[in-house]
What we know:
Blueprint (H helix, E strand, L loop, with lengths): L12 E5 L2 E5 L10 H15 L15 H4 L4 H7 L1
Antiparallel strand pairs: 1-2
Amino acid sequence: xxxxxxxxxxxxxxxxxxxxxxxxxxxxxxxxxxxxxxxxxxxxxxxxxxxxxxxxxxxxxxxxxxxxxxxxxxxxxxxx
Length: 80
């Protein structure tokens, strides 16, 4: 294992603000036409009156594949 480093500004987007280039964090907007939002939209009324949630538990780095290799619900909806 070898420690390494990189300036955090190299991982940020550069945008022109007030005539100068500034490092900024990229905006992550919700894609309203994406599958995860469509799923939310379909269940919105139901979830407004019910207690409905998913608790995935702790992150599993090792163990059985059915526990360790589970993807998030959002990614599963995006990849379907």
